[in-house]
Amino acid sequence: MDRDRAALFDVDGTLADTNHLHAVAWWEALRQGGHRVTMHAVHRAIGLPGGRLLDHLLGQDRDRSDDERLSTAHDTLYGTYFERLQAFDGAADLLRKLAGDGWKVVLVTSAKSRELAALRRAIDADDALADTATSDDVDEGKPAPDPVEHALSLVGVPADRAVFVGDSVWDMKAARRAGVTVVGLLCGGIPGADLTGAGAADVYDDPADLLARLDTSPFAAVPPS
Prior knowledge:
GO molecular function: hydrolase activity
Shape: globular
Structural class: alpha/beta
InterPro entries: HAD-like_hydrolase_sf, HAD-like_sf, HAD-SF_hydro_IA, HAD_sf, PGP-like_dom2
EC number: 3.-.-.-
Pfam family, one: Hydrolase
Number of domains: 2
Enzyme class: hydrolase
């Protein structure tokens, strides 16, 4: 088992074109709760679990009594998009290519179970997945390494035999803290310099770009067993 390889993927903004939908839903939820937060700030916080996102945007010393209502408002607003979610071009092909090459493909996401089900329908590549790991499975979500470490434990692969693909600085930090090589994608809207500064070994435009250059990407540096 320790010679297996793991391809770990964030989902929102990495495989599915959803970051801006999340940003709008959080912005509106916060507005309804009386909080004025810029869309730019909300966008850069996407990828954090709900509680951490609110900490990041509103401060850790805030009154937390309204947190559940804010999260519920976001979930309700975002849920209106479920039937219209779209995967990025090449997302399913990338997952299937890696699985076909013997990689254990695992989704590592902050999405809740209902959201993840909608995302998986949009990506339509369940046949390529070995497992999924969510923030609900661990004590701390991204940027803590816990979700990545949990994903590795699900498939029994050591960190030096894994590559993580994500689109946010939180993805980069979580994977680096877990000792995993990280690849950044620009399709989530975060600048490449921010991703490399947070630990990305290389940066690609989107799943299709990574797929086209897979043979020269960090994936190629992990030999098969």
